[in-house]
Design goal:
With 84 residues, this protein is mainly α. It has three helices and no strands. One of its GO terms (molecular function) is acyl binding.
């Protein structure tokens, strides 16, 4: 199972590669929309990539605290753990 640090690194790499975001801007408390200027489509695409990468489903209809990079990391970690 991946560690939270590995998941965070994966997310950071996805944001750098797909959204062309400067690595120095990506911290645990970085807000995806406010700090990284991602719009709803960008966030949807990020979620889609994450779902494919980890073979999980992320319920975006509920407020899971996935508005920050750290929150999304925690959520992914939790979902992967529940699948074990």
């Amino acid at each position: 199972m991946k560690t939270k640090e590995e998941i965070f690194t994966d997310l950071k790499n996805i944001l750098i590669d797909r959204q062309n975001i400067d690595e120095s801007k990506i911290k645990e408390n970085t807000n995806l929309k406010k700090d990284l200027d991602l719009d709803s489509l960008d966030v949807f695409e990020l979620i889609d990539v994450v779902e494919d990468k980890y073979d999980i489903e992320i319920d975006t209809d509920t407020d899971q605290g996935i508005d920050t990079v750290g929150g999304l990391t925690e959520y992914i970690y939790k979902v992967i753990a529940e699948k074990q």
